[in-house]
């Protein structure tokens, strides 16, 4: 109680903390020590000692209202005091109104005793002589409500000093977020998975409550709820159903579960929502959890008791099994918490206390906790752009009436929504931070975020991060340095000397701190920002003190010993940010004994033109590094790596454009070395240092003009070998049988040896521009795995042998002197351009592009309005590198497409864009910009593989030097288009891009590219129901080829401007809006990378294509079959709204006819 007699101490001014306690129990002991600890930390406290004598006791209630934090200390005799209870009721009232934070402290009492008003504590309450029944009922509510907040428990054996320090820490943590009392921005609200905290409006984390008690509006939850309900369906699933809800921290799992609980509890007579399980378990122990569930499922029981942690409901099993129940468990962080609440179980053994037909939902940040415990899992995704924008507007403008803000604010709103990448928590915090701020403040904030990103979700992510093991924490921070790299590459770096890292990567994925997509490791932008922030303050996180350095000054500080060298784990220096040349001292790396990653790279110029951005070592270099996994050093200035360098843990070595002549002196153990890239190291003449690299998988020696052979190199595990433009390489190398890709283009090899037949796994052989090559031995036909053979530009090659046993699919003979062609039964693409000598082609050669009834020939797919469509095949279609123009896949208004389906369409589009250049570059001079491939589907994000992305319809970039070099094959374009709710029905529209490039004379060179076309047959009209993603691949236009010729020897940036527009046959004004757009420059395949997509989409050696399985009725299949058999021209068929329109043809007229029909409608 805060109203007993006290000393005459002077009250502190503007107190911050009000302490509610029972004086008889605590005044002279625990409370006096607590007051001292708080005041020693400059925290101003109010207890009744500071009240003026003679003032009415009601004054104490006013002091609560003036406070920012209330500490409610429950002790054994607490309920004997009516004043303690009156204060507690006032505290509850203030917290509910959002004016106060309450932190309960349980002094030698179990929280369940307080919440249940049990034992002597409860007896004393019931014995109170209070005539006002309503008031006593209000006190009981407060006793049950306040302990539900996460608090602090003081046990008999608790060290008091530690408890006092913990309370002070928690108070300071809250005070940092709470504005001064009286500020109009003062507000309190609960955070997801944590204590109710008081924060400024700019930092509110969860549910805002208005004066009328109306909660925050939710956006985008309707679709999520529908998808979750489908997994719980009572009719479809008769037995008990357990569903997991997972997703990254702060993504909205709690909001979704509360909405589900509110909607579904009416379907059951008994229901329970247990939230904040992580915090309750940490503060109250596991034993309290089943009691909480019993209280809600069996409210008729007075003071229910559990039997044991192993079998908590043994006594009450009969009562519980009488009714079906709905149980929702939120914020689970350990598997033991699930067992404590539900008992130990698995899906094979039913719960003994749960009646069939019940529904259980478990939400967690860690998917691995649910293994074997749930029937299905629902992943909560980030919001799409439209829902994210609505959420942001709601908090930034208090847009309850959905009044559209000013245009300038809306444009900036798009930028902020794009920054948050669909994360609802970040959107809320950003919106409230910008509330009532002027335009200048918004613009400044955007610039600050561009230069120094802020995570905004640090608090919720920190909880997950703190639960990681030390190995997992290091893995998380390491992966942030290599995000978007191949999974195999990242795993190899982490696992090379620490096998436990493989499990660490898996754990991080399960906790949604990383993700894998198309064979790459990805990380949400906000998590990446968090990792960088965390790395800067690593020494204060109670974990590893190791640092990863990105700034030149930090690297200098290591040399000057102002930063601990032993704590440096990685150095990543972008040489494009280093002005001029810089020198390192000989002993710079001497004491960096734990360095694992060393990268000196240039992000500006991909061709590494001669610049002054170099690292010099005038006095040589000591490199006593034993822990290094990744060593990348652009333009390494020495002739060899120092003698003290130990590559025992080295996985990846990259020294492009270096001065190196040999790797190192003598032979060194390299047991885990997998990738070596020494491209354009023109002085390299010896590779003897690789004689023990038994695990070497990829070796890139392109442009190593002094190299003559591969003597002494261990090639037993090699899969990819690149010797392109090694002009002194004269003999075919002796290479192992497991090689998969061999690049010998530009060498002076004159013949292939007979033992080439031993390369049983060779898939690709590139001998382009081998000017001395005269013949191809017949044994090439024995290479059963060979699918692609490139002999372009081999001028002396006059004959090509018959190939009967090989599975060769692609044969490029352009620019050769071949006169006659043998039968090539397996070849699907043959190029003979620039060959004036050819005089004979075998029968059927003109039909090499035609494979009837097979998915690779599909040129038009119209699935518009298939509202029941959810999934697509994986892969969506096999891709043959053959001549295919105007391939279009349309998924408009397929509103139920699942995320996995959209990702598959996106993945297919990416690989299609990569493969089409191979088919086009050998015969098409690119005089026109035409859409060779296009697709559209419901969505709101530009795929991650687009290198340039921006919010809005205008993308302006400075393209890197040489962006238009000879490897540029085409351009991939993307537009995210919003179709406003008030649109009229339309029959057609088109998405186009006007691409402008600034030439040398400062004039703009424009060309227009089609991105997407949508049209209905005849007089049909329809509405587009949501945001859609449009993707197109455009062949490289003539204007870019001209730029290449004019500027091939210049290392300059190029200004480019892309504007995306949407037009329809009607006016279309205000109906369409381009939300985002993207650009990706498509080059010839990187010969040094084995894309994980190739195996997924390219035609395998032995393949039997099946008819499409999804969305085609059996009758439709038969129709297609008959049309194929008689080989009559195919026509586009009308279908019902929920059918799929398919045209399979070898001609190239389908896409053109669609385009011409569209042009007619637009002009007419």
Overview of the molecule:
Its EC number is 3.2.2.6. One of its GO terms (biological process) is signal transduction. The model is unreliable at about 1-15, about 180-215, about 540-545, about 845-855, about 920-930, about 1085-1095 and about 1100-1164 (pLDDT under 50). Helix 14 (about 385-395) runs parallel beside helix 16. Among the domains are: about 15-175, Rossmann fold; about 220-380, Rossmann fold (3-Layer(aba) Sandwich); about 385-450, no CATH class; about 455-545, Arc Repressor Mutant, subunit A; about 545-555 and about 565-660, no CATH class; about 910-920 and about 925-1040 and about 1050-1085, Sandwich (Jelly Rolls). The chain has a 13-stranded parallel beta sheet, sandwiched between helices. By secondary structure, the protein is α/β, with parallel strands linked by helices. Helix content is about 25%, strand content about 20%. The chain contains 28 helices and 41 strands.
């Amino acid at each position: 109680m805060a109203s007993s007699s006290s000393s005459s101490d002077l009250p502190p001014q503007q107190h911050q903390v009000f302490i509610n306690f029972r004086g008889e129990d605590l005044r002279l002991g625990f409370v006096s020590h607590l007051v001292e600890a708080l005041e020693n930390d400059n925290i101003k406290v109010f207890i009744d000692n500071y009240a003026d004598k003679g003032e009415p006791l009601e004054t104490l209630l006013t002091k609560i209202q003036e406070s920012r934090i209330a500490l409610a200390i429950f002790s054994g005799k607490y309920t004997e005091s009516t004043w303690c209870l009156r204060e507690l009721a006032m505290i509850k009232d203030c917290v509910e109104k959002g004016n106060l934070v309450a932190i309960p402290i349980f002094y030698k009492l179990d929280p369940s005793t307080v919440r249940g008003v049990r034992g002597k504590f409860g007896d004393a309450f019931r014995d109170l002589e209070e005539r006002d029944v309503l008031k006593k009922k209000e006190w009981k509510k407060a006793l049950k409500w306040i302990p539900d907040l996460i608090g602090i428990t003081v046990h008999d054996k608790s060290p008091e000093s530690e408890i006092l320090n913990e309370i002070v820490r928690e108070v300071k943590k809250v005070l940092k977020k709470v504005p001064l009392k009286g500020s109009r921005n003062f507000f309190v609200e609960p955070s997801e998975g944590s204590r109710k905290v008081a924060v400024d409006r700019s930092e509110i984390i969860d549910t805002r409550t208005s004066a009328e008690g109306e909660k925050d509006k939710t956006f985008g939850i309707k679709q999520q709820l529908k998808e979750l309900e489908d997994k719980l369906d009572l009719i479809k699933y008769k037995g008990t159903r357990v569903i997991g809800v997972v997703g990254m921290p702060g993504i909205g799992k709690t909001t979704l579960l509360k909405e589900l609980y509110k909607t579904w509890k009416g379907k059951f007579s008994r229901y329970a929502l247990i939230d904040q399980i992580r915090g309750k378990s940490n503060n109250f122990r596991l034993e309290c959890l089943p009691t909480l569930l019993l209280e809600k499922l069996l409210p008729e029981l007075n003071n229910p008791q559990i039997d044991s942690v192993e079998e908590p409901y043994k006594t009450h099993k009969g009562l519980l099994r009488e009714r079906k129940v709905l149980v929702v468990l939120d914020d689970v962080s350990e598997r033991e918490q699930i067992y404590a609440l539900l008992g130990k179980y698995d899906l094979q053994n039913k719960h003994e206390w749960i009646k069939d037909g019940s529904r259980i939902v478990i939400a967690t940040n860690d998917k691995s906790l649910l293994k074997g415990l749930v029937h299905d899992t629902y992943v909560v995704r980030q919001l799409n752009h439209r829902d994210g924008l609505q959420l942001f507007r709601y908090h930034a403008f208090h847009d309850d009436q959905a009044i559209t803000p000013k245009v300038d604010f809306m444009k900036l709103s798009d930028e902020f929504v794009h920054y948050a990448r669909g994360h609802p928590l970040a959107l809320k915090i950003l919106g409230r931070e910008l509330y009532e701020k002027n335009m200048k403040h918004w613009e400044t904030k955007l610039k600050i975020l561009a230069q120094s990103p802020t995570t905004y979700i640090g608090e919720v992510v920190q909880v997950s991060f703190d639960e990681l093991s030390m190995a997992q924490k290091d893995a998380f921070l390491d992966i942030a340095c290599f995000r978007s790299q191949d999974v195999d590459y990242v795993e190899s770096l982490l696992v090379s000397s620490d096998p436990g890292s493989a499990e660490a990567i898996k754990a991080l994925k399960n906790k949604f701190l990383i993700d894998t997509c198309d064979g790459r490791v990805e990380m949400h932008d906000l998590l990446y920002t968090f990792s960088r922030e965390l790395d800067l303050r690593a020494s204060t996180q109670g974990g590893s003190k190791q640092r990863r350095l990105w700034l030149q000054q930090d690297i200098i500080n290591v040399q000057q010993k102002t930063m601990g060298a032993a704590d440096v784990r990685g150095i990543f220096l972008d040489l494009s940010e280093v002005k001029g040349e810089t020198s390192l001292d000989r002993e710079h790396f001497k004491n960096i004994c734990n360095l694992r990653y060393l990268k000196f790279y240039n992000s500006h110029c991909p061709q590494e033109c001669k610049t002054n951005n170099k690292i010099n070592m005038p006095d040589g270099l000591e490199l006593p590094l034993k822990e290094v996994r990744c060593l990348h050093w652009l333009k390494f200035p020495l002739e060899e790596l120092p003698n003290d360098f130990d590559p025992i843990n080295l996985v990846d070595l990259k020294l492009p454009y270096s001065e190196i002549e040999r790797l190192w002196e003598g032979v060194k153990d390299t047991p885990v070395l997998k990738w070596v890239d020494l491209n354009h190291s023109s002085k390299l003449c010896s590779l003897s240092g690789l004689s023990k690299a038994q695990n070497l998988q990829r070796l890139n020696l392109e442009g190593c003009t002094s190299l003559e052979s591969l003597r002494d190199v261990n090639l037993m595990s090699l899969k990819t070998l690149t010797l392109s433009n090694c002009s002194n390489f004269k003999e075919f190398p002796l290479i192992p049988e497991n090689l998969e890709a061999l690049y010998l283009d530009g060498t002076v090899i004159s013949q292939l040896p007979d033992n080439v037949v031993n390369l049983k796994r060779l898939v690709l052989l590139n001998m382009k521009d081998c000017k001395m090559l005269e013949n191809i031995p017949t044994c090439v036909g024995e290479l059963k795995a060979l699918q692609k053979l490139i002999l372009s530009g081999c001028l002396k090659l006059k004959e090509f042998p018959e190939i009967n046993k090989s599975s060769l699919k692609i044969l490029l003979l352009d620019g050769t002197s071949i006169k006659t062609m043998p039968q090539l039964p397996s070849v699907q693409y043959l190029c003979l351009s620039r060959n004036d000598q050819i005089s004979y082609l075998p029968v059927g050669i003109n039909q090499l592009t035609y494979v009837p009834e097979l998915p690779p020939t599909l040129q038009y797919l119209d699935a518009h309005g298939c509202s029941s469509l959810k999934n697509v095949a994986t892969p969506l279609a096999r891709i043959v590198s053959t001549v295919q123009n105007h391939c279009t896949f349309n998924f408009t208004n397929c509103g139920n497409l699942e995320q996995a389906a959209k990702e598959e369409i996106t993945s297919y589009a990416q690989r299609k864009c990569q493969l089409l250049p191979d088919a086009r570059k050998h015969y098409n001079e690119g005089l026109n910009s035409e859409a060779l491939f296009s697709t559209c589907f419901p969505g709101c994000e530009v795929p991650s593989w687009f290198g340039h992305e921006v919010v809005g319809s205008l993308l302006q970039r400075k393209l890197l030097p040489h962006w238009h070099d000879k490897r540029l094959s085409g351009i991939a374009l993307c537009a995210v288009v919003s179709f406003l709710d008030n649109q009229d029905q339309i029959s057609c529209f088109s998405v186009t891009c006007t691409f402008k490039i600034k030439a040398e004379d400062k004039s703009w060179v424009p060309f227009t590219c089609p991105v997407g076309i949508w049209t209905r047959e005849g007089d049909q009209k329809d509405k587009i129901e949501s945001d859609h993603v449009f993707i197109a691949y455009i062949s490289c236009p003539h204007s870019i080829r001209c730029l290449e010729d004019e500027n091939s020897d210049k290392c300059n940036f190029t200004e480019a401007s892309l504007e995306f527009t949407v037009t329809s046959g009607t006016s279309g004004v205000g109906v369409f809006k381009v939300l985002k757009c993207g650009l990706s420059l498509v080059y010839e395949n990187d010969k040094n990378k084995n894309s994980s997509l190739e195996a997924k989409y390219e035609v395998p050696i032995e393949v039997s294509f099946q008819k499409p399985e999804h969305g085609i009725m059996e009758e439709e299949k038969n129709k297609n079959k008959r049309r194929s058999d008689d080989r009559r021209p195919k026509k586009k068929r009308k279908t019902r709204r929920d059918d799929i329109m398919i045209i399979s043809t070898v001609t190239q007229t389908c896409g053109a006819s669609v385009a011409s029909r569209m042009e007619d409608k637009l002009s007419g």
